[in-house]
Amino acid sequence: MLNSKCNPSAPFQFRGALRNLAASVLVGLVTVTGAWGQSRFSVTDLGTLPGSTMSVATGLNDSGDVVGYCSLGTDTINGMGFVWHQGVMVSTGKLPGGIYSAATAINSLGVVAGDGDTGNLRPQSWVAGPKGLVNIFPNPGGNTHVIGINDSGAICGAYTKSLSGAVSAWKVALWTPDPKDPRKYLTTQLPILVGADPTFKGTGAFPTAFNQAGQAAGYATNELIGQHACFWNNDATHAIVDLGVYPGDSSSIGWGMNDLGQVVGESHAAFGSRAVVWNNDPLHTAIELPLLPGDNFGSARAVNSLGQAVGISAWGDPGTWNIGPTTLVLWSRGSVVALQNSLDSVTGAGWTLVSAVAINNNGQIVGMGVHNGNSRAFLLTPIAP
Prior knowledge:
Strand order of the largest sheet: 1-14-13-12-11
Helix content: under 10%
Shape: globular
Number of strands: 29
Number of helices: 1
Largest sheet: 5 strands, antiparallel
Strand content: over 45%
Distance between the termini: 51 Å
Order of helices and strands: EHEEEEEEEEEEEEEEEEEEEEEEEEEEEE
């Protein structure tokens, strides 16, 4: 392991701080296509931080705490990270000298991690401490991105030493508190899938999801597979597994995963995309998820441990990349439903849902939508039948 030589304070649990503010003002196999679920939701507008005009949700935990960022208009350069808990939104602040911040992950203990700069707009990664945000991996001139934090305090993400967007430029990383000095973090670089030519410059990987078991998912590239969804295990070597594609397809991407090690994403035939779940059996069997009637283009973006998943369904003109308007959907109880049509008529009035990015183990969903003309982060909560 490499010592990142940062000097963080202990992680800060935003949930306790929010409560104080409010007071003053692999276990078993779950099959996604056969899980239980709810079909009606109440909608909560999370609002914005003072001085902001829009909010975007990026994640949530099982307590319904939501993280994301607020900004002016669509300009994310001036964004400020937030944590929302039981109706109260507070700012995460920024790294010293920072121009922007964005909270991207929260664990069940209320510890928040995210991205932000130190004055040059180049993303760094942080965890919230009692004295503010702490840069866990100082990377001057580079680019660092956090995608998840679990209850043990392990943080998963990726970094480059430049601003290159190529997959091959990224290093997949796991940051863990140093047992000898909890003020510091240790960096472990996770493996990639190397093809027949170890010098091939297009070889690389990128993570998109992280779970409580310390497993990660994403996608990998090399000259043999092109681009395939992949999975990092939580063994001593963090072994990487090629999840492959749905039979007959040519490429795939993993977008989300649950605590059981199931991965959801998309698999591609020519000019197409199908929503897929890779199960947590030894073969990581790929199962296609159904789309809305008449649609032929889909992608699953997040999944919980109950087997419920969220994503998109659309129609694409065969043989082209002309994709029609997408519909946000929920897969549950062996069926697929449009989220927009599942909103409570009272709380859902005035809402147009735009994106759904996460679903917790209580079936709550977060994303971004338009509420009475304003761009807002939302929290969907299942309504008991």
